[in-house]
Amino acid sequence: MPDLGKYADAVLSSYAVSILMIVVVVLLSVRRSNRVKRELQELESKVKSNG
Amino acid sequence: MIALLLRDIRLAMRAGGGFGLGLSFFLIVVVLVPFGVGPQSALLTVIAPGILWLGALLACLLSLDRILALDWEDGSLDLLATSPLPMEGIVSVKALAHWVTTGLPLVAAAPVLGLLLNLSEPGYKWLIISLFLGTPALSVIGTFGAALTVGLKRGGLLLSLLVLPLYVPTLIFGAEVARRGAEGLDATTPLLMLAGITCGTIALLPFASAAVLRVNLR
Amino acid sequence: MNLNAFWEYANPKKFIQTADRLLPWFAGLAAVTLVGGLIWGFFFTPADYRQGSTVKIIYLHVPSALMAINAWLMMLVTSLIWIVRRHHVSALAARAAAPVGMVMTLIALVTGAIWGQPMWGTWWAWDPRLTSFLILFLFYLGYIALWEAIENDDTAADLTSILCLVGSVFALLSRYAVNFWNQGLHQGASLSLDKEENVADVFWYPLLVCIAGFVFLFIALVLMRTRTEIRARRMRALLTRERMEA
Question: FRET pair for C57, CA 20 to 30 Å: which of B150, C20, C174, C204?
Answer without folding.
Answer: C174
